[in-house]
Amino acid sequence: MDEYKTSQLDAVFGAVADPTRRAILARLAQADARVTELAGDFPISLNSVSKHIRMLERAGLVSRTVSGRDHVLSLNARPMSEAADWMDFYRQFWEQRLAALEAFVRSRRKTASAAEKPADKPVVRKGKQT
C-alpha cells in the first residue's frame, strides 16, 4: 500500500474515532449544513466544533463551500468507502482463516470420537455368549 493511501487511512480512522465527529458525519449524511447550524446541534463551543470539522476536512470526509460569510459543509463518503475496502480485505482474510480452523477442529473431533468408540463386544445373556 502506498504512503498516500496509508496516511489517508490513518486520517480517516483518526477522524471517525471520535463520537462528535461521527455525529457530524451522520448529520451531514442527511443534508449539507452551515457550520453554525452544526454547532447548534452540539453542547460544545463553535470553536470546538470548528476543530472537529477541520479534522474531518483533513481526512477528506467533509468539503467546505464558502459563499460570502456562509461556510456550507458537505459529506464526502469516498474516503470511508476506501477504509471499508481495506477492512473488508482483512475481514475476508480472517473469515478464511477461521473457516480453516473450524474444519481442522471438526476433523480432529471426528478422529477423537472414532478413537474413543469401543470395539464391538459380544453380548452376554444369561451365561451365554452371542
From TrEMBL:
Residues 110-130 are annotated as: Disordered. PROSITE patterns: HTH_ARSR_2 (PS50987). It comes from the Bacteria. SUPFAM superfamilies: Winged helix' DNA-binding domain. Transmembrane segments: none annotated. Gene3D superfamilies: Winged helix-like DNA-binding domain superfamily/Winged helix DNA-binding domain. Residues 1-95 form the HTH arsR-type domain. SMART domains: HTH_ARSR. PANTHER family: SLL0088 PROTEIN, TRANSCRIPTIONAL REGULATORY PROTEIN. This is Metalloregulator ArsR/SmtB family transcription factor.
